[in-house]
Amino acid sequence: MLKNNMPRIISTDEKLSVIEDWLAGETREDIAIKHNIGSGTVYNIVNEWSNSIGIEKADVSRELAAKKRKKI
Asked: CA–CA separation, 54 vs 32, rounded Å?
């Protein structure tokens, strides 16, 4: 039986969930496992989002989320 090698389509909601997990400080590998996608796909989703809002803003957002999480 042939295996379907077509990549699955990642929904907008799933992409947003990946970004939320990244902002929460989860590792790329952990996010990939959680969403059953490759770590390269996680990288691509985060990279696309970071480029759309500006890489500096994305990095600052993740730092702020991490600091907030540590205070809780």
From this structure: 23
What predicted TM-score, i.e. pTM, was given to this entire model?
0.78
Instruction: Write down the H helix ranges in the chain.
Output: 12-23, 28-35, 39-53, 55-71
Structure tokens at 69: 């999480």
Is the four-CA dihedral 43, 47, 48, 49 of positive or negative sign? positive
The 10s digit of each residue's pLDDT in 10-36 is 999 999 999 999 988 899 999 999 999
Delimit the domains of the chain by residue range: 12-71
The first and second tokens of residue 57, run together, are: 């803003």
